[in-house]
Amino acid sequence: MLFPEQVTVIRPGRGLHTQLRLRTGRTISVLISRAIRTWNETIRWRVDGVVRERPLVTLLVRLDTSNQSIQDFHLLPKIDRLGRFTIRLQDPWLDRGERLASLSNFCDAVKRVCVRCR
């Protein structure tokens, strides 16, 4: 089990942002992204910008189209965009990181993503 042995919540999220600290000392930013319908009824996910957390490794959690449950997880080396932005279901921006099928391999994925961002 991932929690609580390897991860501690160090800043519970107000709204959709949270910070975690791994046992290794690395801080991870967690962003929950809500699904929205755009002008042509396509589904996109709105990502609220972070200021101080942008350089941190970020776990992006996308909710399903009803915003009731988790659809998928993406671990990114950092958020390189300012302000709020949207992403598509298959967005090339997500390819900078790693998609996680579950949180069971979260810590190993953090190591792999950190190696890529050096």
Describe the protein.
The chain is mostly beta strands. The protein has one domain (7-116). It is built from 1 helix and 8 strands. Strands 1, 2, 3, 4, 5, 6, 7 and 8 form an 8-stranded mixed sheet that branches. Strand 5 and strand 6 (70-76) form a beta hairpin. The longest helix has 11 residues, at 106-116. The radius of gyration is 14 Å and the shape is globular. The termini are far apart. The mean pLDDT is 82.
Shape: globular
How many angstroms does the end-to-end distance come to? 28 Å
Share of residues in strands:
35-45%
Main beta sheet: strand number and arrangement?
Answer: 8 strands, mixed
User: C-alpha Rg, in Å?
Assistant: 14 Å
How many distinct helices? 1
What is the assembly state of the chains in this entry?
Answer: single chain
Total E-strand runs: 8
* Mean pLDDT over all positions: 82
Q: Which bin fits the share of residues in helices?
A: under 10%
Short description:
The protein is mainly beta. The chain is built from one helix and eight strands.
Task: Give a quick set of tags describing it.
mainly beta, 118 residues, 1 helix, eight-stranded mixed sheet, globular, 9% helix
